[in-house]
Amino acid sequence: MQFMMIRKADTSTEQGDMPSQAMLSEMSAYNERMAAAGVFVTGSGLTPTREGCRIEFSDGKPVVLQGPFEPPGEQIAGYSILEVASLEEAIHWASQWPTMDADGNVRLELRRYFDMEDFEPGAGIERHLQLEASLQKRPDAFNVYLMFDGRCEQALNFYAELLGGVVEDMMTYGNSPAAGEVPAAMHPLIIHGAVNLGGRYLMGSDMPADQYQVPASASVQISYNDVARGEAVFNALADGGQIEMPFAETFWAYRFGAVRDRFGVDWMINCDQPG
What we know:
The chain has 275 residues and is an alpha+beta fold. Helix content is 24%, strand content 32%. The chain has 6 helices and 14 strands. A hairpin with a 6-residue loop joins β12 (242-248) and β13.
């Protein structure tokens, strides 16, 4: 079962006083102990309530109330999610909260998450169970992996610059454990490269010349709300490549274009109606 361990706010946290490096180290050590025991799921601190708001409904209409909120001790300064077997085990770990925090004057609260088994069977809970089953099927990451004809490094650097990404990996065959298994001519080529696009990755590698095939019946699709930016990206991809469908209005998009770039990769660029 899961418990939320709530660190209640106080005057200091509501003033926005930041923890010292020593306190951050103590908290990290505490979380590491729980992680090693298999009970720590996640956790984080929260900014003061003055930076947040509440949304209260009156006759079905939302009303936004801007913080700060009083009294400080009734607010939340942070939380941890624990995966434990019982309330007693949750208390065991909560009791080990670092005493450096607020000079040992901290108030914690433990609240158990509902399990699906807590609810009576019926159509409503069945929908929740179906959603839960669907979410469990989803991968933790979904990215694009491309194969190249020896120009992987050039291509990924180009994409990183064009799309505002960061190159996080560019390993050659020669610098990999597979160096002894490939011809020396492949050593300068890329066995794995990765561009981070805000948590989504465009990855790739070079294929041996006798195995490489130009990608077919597949495209990398990207979308922009900024039409000018979308058109600029389309034109940059088309430079040295081949336009397959001009960048223009369609029945499904304000602007759409399809292009095969200079590296043989097909792209689709969609832009929504501006404003």
